[in-house]
Amino acid sequence: MKETLKTIEKFHGHLGPYVVLGYRIGVIANKLLGEDPFKKTVTILTGTKPPVSCIIDGVQLSSGCTLGKGNLNVLDEKQPAARFTDNNGSTLDISVKSEVLEEIEKAFKEKKDVSGKIFERSDEELFEVRFKDNGSNN
Asked: First CA to last CA across the chain, in angstroms?
Protein backbone atom coordinates (compact mmCIF):
# COMPACT_ATOMS: atom_id res chain seq x y z
CA MET A 1 0.00 0.00 0.00
CA LYS A 2 2.71 2.52 0.95
CA GLU A 3 4.54 2.10 -2.35
CA THR A 4 1.34 2.58 -4.35
CA LEU A 5 0.47 5.73 -2.39
CA LYS A 6 4.00 7.04 -2.98
CA THR A 7 3.63 6.39 -6.71
CA ILE A 8 0.28 8.22 -6.77
CA GLU A 9 1.77 11.14 -4.86
CA LYS A 10 4.79 11.36 -7.16
CA PHE A 11 2.63 11.29 -10.30
CA HIS A 12 0.06 13.82 -9.08
CA GLY A 13 2.32 16.08 -7.01
CA HIS A 14 0.57 15.48 -3.70
CA LEU A 15 -1.64 12.86 -2.12
CA GLY A 16 -5.34 13.58 -1.73
CA PRO A 17 -8.56 11.59 -1.54
CA TYR A 18 -9.74 12.36 -5.07
CA VAL A 19 -6.55 11.20 -6.81
CA VAL A 20 -6.74 8.04 -4.68
CA LEU A 21 -10.35 7.49 -5.75
CA GLY A 22 -9.35 8.00 -9.39
CA TYR A 23 -6.58 5.46 -9.02
CA ARG A 24 -9.03 2.93 -7.58
CA ILE A 25 -11.52 3.64 -10.41
CA GLY A 26 -8.83 2.75 -12.96
CA VAL A 27 -7.97 -0.45 -11.09
CA ILE A 28 -11.62 -1.55 -11.27
CA ALA A 29 -11.72 -0.76 -15.00
CA ASN A 30 -8.61 -2.86 -15.61
CA LYS A 31 -10.12 -5.78 -13.70
CA LEU A 32 -13.37 -5.72 -15.67
CA LEU A 33 -12.24 -4.51 -19.11
CA GLY A 34 -8.64 -5.71 -19.23
CA GLU A 35 -5.36 -3.89 -18.72
CA ASP A 36 -4.61 -2.91 -22.33
CA PRO A 37 -5.22 0.86 -22.44
CA PHE A 38 -5.54 0.80 -26.22
CA LYS A 39 -8.66 -1.38 -25.95
CA LYS A 40 -10.71 1.02 -23.83
CA THR A 41 -11.67 4.67 -23.51
CA VAL A 42 -12.89 6.67 -20.55
CA THR A 43 -14.98 9.77 -20.13
CA ILE A 44 -14.53 11.38 -16.74
CA LEU A 45 -17.37 13.62 -15.58
CA THR A 46 -15.47 15.77 -13.05
CA GLY A 47 -14.63 18.79 -15.15
CA THR A 48 -11.18 20.30 -14.72
CA LYS A 49 -11.50 22.21 -11.44
CA PRO A 50 -9.74 20.77 -8.37
CA PRO A 51 -10.14 19.09 -6.06
CA VAL A 52 -12.61 16.69 -7.72
CA SER A 53 -10.72 16.85 -11.04
CA CYS A 54 -7.79 15.14 -9.29
CA ILE A 55 -9.71 11.94 -10.09
CA ILE A 56 -8.43 12.40 -13.66
CA ASP A 57 -4.79 11.90 -12.68
CA GLY A 58 -5.59 8.80 -10.66
CA VAL A 59 -7.51 7.26 -13.57
CA GLN A 60 -4.67 8.04 -15.99
CA LEU A 61 -2.08 6.47 -13.70
CA SER A 62 -3.90 3.21 -13.03
CA SER A 63 -5.92 2.59 -16.19
CA GLY A 64 -3.36 3.70 -18.74
CA CYS A 65 -6.02 5.77 -20.52
CA THR A 66 -4.54 9.23 -21.03
CA LEU A 67 -5.20 12.55 -22.73
CA GLY A 68 -2.09 11.99 -24.83
CA LYS A 69 -3.35 8.66 -26.18
CA GLY A 70 -6.68 10.27 -26.99
CA ASN A 71 -8.62 7.67 -25.03
CA LEU A 72 -9.50 9.91 -22.08
CA ASN A 73 -12.09 12.67 -22.27
CA VAL A 74 -13.31 15.03 -19.57
CA LEU A 75 -16.82 16.48 -19.39
CA ASP A 76 -17.73 19.32 -17.05
CA GLU A 77 -20.58 17.56 -15.26
CA LYS A 78 -19.05 18.22 -11.81
CA GLN A 79 -19.62 14.58 -10.89
CA PRO A 80 -17.03 12.24 -9.38
CA ALA A 81 -17.74 9.55 -11.94
CA ALA A 82 -16.30 7.86 -15.02
CA ARG A 83 -17.64 5.82 -17.92
CA PHE A 84 -15.36 3.34 -19.62
CA THR A 85 -16.12 1.60 -22.89
CA ASP A 86 -14.10 -1.11 -24.57
CA ASN A 87 -13.67 -2.18 -28.18
CA ASN A 88 -16.41 -4.83 -27.73
CA GLY A 89 -18.99 -2.23 -26.69
CA SER A 90 -18.97 -3.16 -23.00
CA THR A 91 -19.60 -0.23 -20.66
CA LEU A 92 -18.53 0.37 -17.11
CA ASP A 93 -19.94 3.24 -15.07
CA ILE A 94 -18.25 4.01 -11.76
CA SER A 95 -19.33 6.77 -9.40
CA VAL A 96 -18.21 7.70 -5.92
CA LYS A 97 -20.85 7.06 -3.26
CA SER A 98 -22.39 10.15 -1.70
CA GLU A 99 -21.42 9.14 1.83
CA VAL A 100 -17.77 8.98 0.75
CA LEU A 101 -18.03 12.49 -0.72
CA GLU A 102 -19.56 13.73 2.53
CA GLU A 103 -16.69 12.16 4.48
CA ILE A 104 -14.14 13.89 2.23
CA GLU A 105 -15.85 17.27 2.56
CA LYS A 106 -15.90 16.91 6.34
CA ALA A 107 -12.20 15.99 6.34
CA PHE A 108 -11.38 19.04 4.17
CA LYS A 109 -13.20 21.32 6.63
CA GLU A 110 -11.36 19.74 9.55
CA LYS A 111 -8.06 19.82 7.61
CA LYS A 112 -7.62 16.05 7.96
CA ASP A 113 -6.08 13.77 5.36
CA VAL A 114 -8.23 10.71 4.67
CA SER A 115 -6.32 9.51 1.59
CA GLY A 116 -4.81 6.40 3.23
CA LYS A 117 -8.12 5.53 4.87
CA ILE A 118 -9.92 5.82 1.52
CA PHE A 119 -7.26 3.71 -0.21
CA GLU A 120 -7.76 0.85 2.27
CA ARG A 121 -11.55 0.63 1.87
CA SER A 122 -13.28 -1.91 -0.36
CA ASP A 123 -14.63 -1.08 -3.80
CA GLU A 124 -18.14 -1.75 -2.48
CA GLU A 125 -17.72 0.85 0.26
CA LEU A 126 -16.46 3.52 -2.12
CA PHE A 127 -18.25 3.13 -5.45
CA GLU A 128 -21.44 2.44 -7.33
CA VAL A 129 -20.41 0.18 -10.22
CA ARG A 130 -22.57 -0.70 -13.23
CA PHE A 131 -21.07 -3.07 -15.79
CA LYS A 132 -22.64 -4.16 -19.08
CA ASP A 133 -20.50 -6.85 -20.69
CA ASN A 134 -20.88 -7.16 -24.47
CA GLY A 135 -18.02 -9.57 -25.08
CA SER A 136 -14.80 -11.09 -23.84
CA ASN A 137 -12.69 -8.73 -21.74
CA ASN A 138 -9.51 -10.69 -21.20
From this structure: 26
